Every structure is written in C-alpha cells, then in structure tokens.
C-alpha cells in the first residue's frame, strides 16, 4: 500500500507510470507532473465482465491549518489526499457492488445538481402564482409583495438549499420593515410555494413549517370599527403628519368615499368626472369585477381639484414616488400609520367597516350603504331584481358622511 511520502515525492518521467495502492486504487504520475487518482474496476454486463476506469481526481497535499470549509471546497474541486482518495475508492466500490458504474453515477449527479441550481425559488414562485385561480390584479399584488419582501433574500437561491434560517430572516426583516400583516402574507405565500416544490420533487421539505410561530400574532383589529372619537383623532394626526402629499390625499379619498385601499391608490384621472361629481371605477379594478360608480362629496372635489395641479399630467392620481408611470402601493398607508403610532390599532381595511357601522347608526338605508361599499346582495332572488344604484340618495348620504368627518375632526 502507498504512503503519503511516496505520493508526495514521486517525480515525473518521460512516460506516465503508476503507484499502486490497494483494491483497484492507484496514483498515475504524468510527464507534466500531474498526479491523478484512478480506480480500476470490473463491472458485469450480461454474461461478461468489462474492465473500466474511474478518474477520482488529482493528488493534493492538505495545507497546514486547513479549515473544514476549505477542505470541502478542495474536494469539490476534485483534489484529494491519499486518505480522501481511499474514501472515494470505497464509495465507488460500493456502487460497483450494486452494478452501478461510478463514472456514470457522477455524471448523473452533476446533471441533477445543475437542475437543482436552475430551480430557483423565484422561478417556482412564479409557477405557483400562474397555477392560482386568482384574478390577475390579485396575482399582480402578490407578485409585487414577493418581489419587494422575499425575492431579494431568497429568490435566486436553489429551492433545495433554502433553510429555515433563511425563512426566519425573511419574516423578521419583513415584520420590522413592513409590519406583521405583510410578514404573515409572505409566510403563507412561501409555504404554498414550497408545497408545490415538494409535490413536484424539487424540494424535500417545507422550511417554513419549523418557524411558522416565530413571529407574534398580528393583534391589529382589522375589522373593529373606530369610534367617532378615534376617527377624529386619526384624521387630526393625519393633518399633522407632514409626510408625502399623495399618501395623505389618497388616505383622505379612501375615507371620503369608503373605497378599498387599492382602489384609492391605483385611481386614474380618466375615471373621474369632477364636474358631475362622479368617480367610475372600471370593472378590472374592482374585487367583484363589476364597474362601480362613486358619488363625490364637495370635500373630495375640492381636494382632487387641488391635486390635479400636482399630478394631473400623470395617468394616476397618486403616482409612485420612484416610477411615476406606476401608482403608489397600498403599503404606503401602513408605513404612514406606523409613523403616526396607529400601527396595531387600526388598518386601512377597517375604514369600510367603520363607515358601514357609523352610517347605519346615522339611520341611512342598508341598501344605500351596501351599494356604496360595492357589496354583493347575499339574497340571490333580491339580487336578481334589485339593480338600483341609488345614486341620488347615496350622493346625499356621502355628503353627510363627509360633513360628519369634519365634525369629528373638530372634536
């Protein structure tokens, strides 16, 4: 059997020669000075046995003080000490005993590794989104969240290489920067993406599961209606915010019309007829995919006419701060509320619950309120025959609502 001294001191000759070790392993010394480990074996093919050769790699001397990481990188580069070459020979012999050619096995492993590296989290995430039976606007919003929150952290990583530590980093960073609501949405999305990866044999497990309870529960009471006192305080705090004008104006528009946050921030000037005091939100931007007509109170008209001088040259009322051809994102509301100290006490989605509760208390018809909120009539028969828009009544109702908001702001 060979010794390390023999391997280290072997000199090249005019022709290649070999130093034999044991059980098919030998070291080939080439004229150019390269020392290569070879494993000779026989593999049965039918009734015959065929001799083959497996190139393990080159001989290497482990540097003094070499770390485990450096040694692993060296072996990945197929450079082995005598002891390591014997280990590789043992692995190869085990394959031969199973009738597997170790050279072919390595080629398959390389192909598999390349496929795994090409299967990134981002590519599977987009595949997962495409499979969802969601409206395009919903898919677009979810992709926007993934692009902002998740992809910068793990999007380019092979899905099999992502660990629970990676996931925890995404969640904690998102919770601090965007709030628990966004972090929870990121967690649900990542878990769904890994479910697809596991079911298609591109991942072995869902790394989200072990850290699913790492973050505290979101205690924001999204559905609780605000009291009159809370509404007044919130809107007074908004007046003293001093932040971006477009953000505060979009927030006020949401309160004055009781529209959804996304409907406000993505509003386009072409949807408004300020002379007629009407806002027509197209079907493609509505949750129920039906055009919705919204009466505008005088407070909203005054506010929008002032805004037109600022953003009227753009498509959107509230263009994105960095890309003016795109609308701002609803996450801007959450960031503003966090600055104002309202994060955890109120979310923008609670605006509609608040408006519905207070308008009912003010004695307005439930039909008018439900039409203003673009809710679908739950009774199928009544829904078939009740197509009334109640525009005149709703216009009076929303003017009284806007006046009441002014009253509450004044305390």
UniProtKB/TrEMBL annotation:
This is Tyrosine-type recombinase/integrase. Residues 221-399 form the Tyr recombinase domain. Belongs to the 'phage' integrase family. It comes from the Bacteria. It holds the Pfam family Phage_int_M. It comes from Pseudomonas aestuarii. Keywords: DNA integration, DNA recombination, DNA-binding. The keyword Magnesium does not apply. InterPro entries: DNA_brk_join_enz, Integrase-like_cat_sf, Integrase_catalytic, Integrase_DNA-bd_sf, Integrase_DNA_bind_dom, Integrase_recombinase_N, Phage_int_M, Phage_Integrase.
